Amino acid sequence: MGFTNIFIKKDKVRELYKELEEILEFFPQELKYKLDFEIKKFFKPVQEIRLRKNKPVCIFSSGNNFILNTTVDSESFDYIFNRLCKYSVYSYQQDINNGFITTDSGCRVGVCGTAVLNFDKLISIKNISSLNFRIAKDFEGSAKQIISDNLENIIVAGVPASGKTTVLRDIARSYSANCYKVCIVDERNEITSNRFDLGIMTDCLKGYKKAYGVTLALRTLSPQVVIFDEIGSLEECEAVIECMNAGVNIVTSVHCKNKNEFFQRKVCKKLVDTSFFDKVVFLNKVPGNIDEIYYLKE
């Protein structure tokens, strides 16, 4: 399959700016105005805004990194971090320890700092030094080239920020529109933000560990398809296999650079060896672009 863009349309520009404005609400006013002016000059969708204390702001857009002219001083950085935690860092400590905070709009913010260990166990992170806002997007129709009229077992593969979560979200919405019972297991509260329409037939298990959530969905919700993001452990593979053996379809995503890397990963090999999966969708490093749909049963 050729190199196909499935996200970027001119009529989405206003919507993209709205997403940006929701993120900039966490910023102090002066910094907000500066960044709003600088970023909109690109007239391109922004996937990430990265803040490093006392360094220039960087953005990731259309597969490239850009360094802006605006620097985030310590006071502004601490203001943003406290706003993200709703002025209660303690209540967000577990999320911070896991390396991210998810905003109410579904934006995942990566947190970087110094680990505090107790007998090799991470108990907290101090000296927060950088924040990476990964802007959650929603593009209806992004799964159109991927799904068929019938339910399938699908793996969406790509590098970070290649649009895997966005594709999963639209697959869920599309299956729901076709009156299939869909369950999303959303460990990071990123797929199922209230701002996204996931369809009438979609149930959401938010904050559950993936392996447990998949098993729970099978036992309690009688889904026809279970969708979750970023499979990465053999424990999660076992839950997937249990689900598919019970006749439930699975749609998930995985981090990988290309087809060769995909088939070398233990987790991916285990999934393919089940003979349940129908296709692997390889996304390009430019967000929203499909390199190839690889059919496993042809």
Shape: globular
Strand count, sense and barrel status of the largest sheet are: 8 strands, mixed
H/E order of the elements? EHHEEEHHEEEEHEEHEHEHHEE
Determine the number of helices (DSSP H or I, runs of at least 4 residues). Answer: 9
How is the quaternary structure best described? single chain
Query: Which structural category do the helix and sheet elements fall into?
Result: alpha/beta
Radius of gyration: 20 Å
**Percent range for β-strand residues:** 25-35%
Name the poorly predicted regions: 1-11
Residue share in helix: 25-40%
Strand order of the largest sheet: 1-14-13-8-12-11-9-10
Mean pLDDT: 88
Q: What's the end-to-end separation, in Å?
A: 15 Å
What does this structure look like?
This protein has nine helices and 14 strands. It is globular and about 55 Å long. A hairpin with a 2-residue loop joins strand 6 and strand 7. It has an eight-stranded mixed β-sheet, sandwiched between helices. A six-stranded antiparallel β-sheet has the order 4-3-2-7-6-5. Helix 1 runs antiparallel to helix 2. The chain is α/β, with parallel strands linked by helices. About 30% of the residues lie in helices and about 30% in strands.
